[in-house]
Design goal:
Strand content: 35-45%
Shape: globular
Strand order of the largest sheet: 11-15-14-13-12
Order of helices and strands: EEEEEEHHEEEEEEEEEEEEE
Largest sheet: 5 strands, mixed
Number of helices: 2
Distance between the termini: 21 Å
Number of strands: 19
Structural class: mainly beta
């Protein structure tokens, strides 16, 4: 409903419950946690620290609790960062401490874990035992980013020759592998590098990685499917295909059992459906002042509308 409230609808479109989040403001993503629980990315209203909290909402009682504060989980890195200034690339955020910029979450029930996407660090992060003795499990991305931080040893080893994700959005669980501890994640790889919260750090980037917010004409983004192997502490690229460039926002989501993909490239203002090989079936464009964040395809089974 807004950045401070959520609503639960039934299949007839009737509102069954409204959840008031009080001092918290939503951003980017919500999803289901344990039975009867909603997990949401949030921030404290009026705080200079933004986009670094996870809250828990009880669907029965409406009780809202702060579940995870990444300033505590990754305090050793938070202390290395600073607020954004008017001289930074994202100058419109001047005064905000957007040090991690969480933009998606995925709950994993079997080990009570949470996988989040951090745009600012171009890293996928997993925490385990989030409702108990929580701890950091792993980081996946360009491990050079973490070399001089307290978290270098948490990085999964990249297996294979590919350019890792940068500025990624919408990390989603796909399916399990052939053995326990192996599974696959879908990632919209924006393929865009921008760091606004850390001084004296540069990466030697591959030529294919975009550094311009609106693109210079030759950049592409990708849908990535990562194989995560927790037994070997590694990640590899199992499948990928190019999609129109979008430096921010966007998603690539598997559709049903067809193997098809629904992809939204927000900055390019297009969305479309791709087949299981990554070949475009049909694409739609639109004009607006703001980009779409995500696009999904549903069959509306069990939903009544007129």
């Amino acid at each position: 409903m807004s950045n401070g409230k959520l609503a639960r609808f039934n299949g007839l479109g009737q509102i069954e419950q409204i959840y008031d989040l009080g001092e918290y403001a939503l951003h980017h993503d919500i999803g289901f946690g344990q039975e009867g629980e909603i997990l949401a990315l949030a921030e404290l209203e009026g705080s200079e620290n933004v986009e670094d909290l996870v809250i828990s909402i009880d669907m029965e009682t409406g009780e809202v609790q702060q579940l995870i504060d990444f300033k505590e989980v990754m305090s050793g890195y938070y202390e290395m960062t600073r607020p954004i200034t008017a001289a930074d690339e994202f100058f419109w955020q001047a005064g905000e401490w957007d040090w991690i910029h969480l933009n998606s979450l995925q709950y994993m029930e079997e080990d009570d874990s949470l996988i989040v996407s951090s745009r600012e660090t171009s890293t996928i992060i997993k925490l385990k035992n989030i409702h108990g003795d929580m701890e950091l499990a792993w980081l996946a991305g360009d491990e050079r980013f973490w070399t001089d931080t307290p978290y270098a040893d948490y990085c999964l080893e990249q297996e294979g020759d590919f350019v890792p994700q940068y500025g990624q959005h919408c990390v989603e669980y796909l399916y399990d592998g052939d053995e326990e501890g192996v599974y696959y994640l879908a990632v919209y790889n924006n393929n865009y590098w921008s760091l606004n919260s850390r001084d004296d750090f540069e990466l030697d980037l591959a030529e294919s990685v975009g550094t311009d917010l609106y693109g210079l004409g030759n950049e592409t983004s990708q849908v990535y499917v990562y194989k995560i192997d927790e037994n070997n502490d590694s990640f590899s690229l199992a499948f990928s295909f190019d999609v129109p460039y979008s430096s921010i926002v966007s998603n690539g989501s598997a559709y049903g059992d067809s193997g098809h993909w629904v992809v939204n490239s927000g900055v390019s203002k297009v969305f479309g459906e791709y087949d299981a090989e990554g070949k475009l079936i049909r694409e739609f464009s639109y004009e607006c002042d703001m980009q779409n964040y995500r696009v999904f395809k549903y069959d509306f089974t069990g939903v009544w509308f007129r």
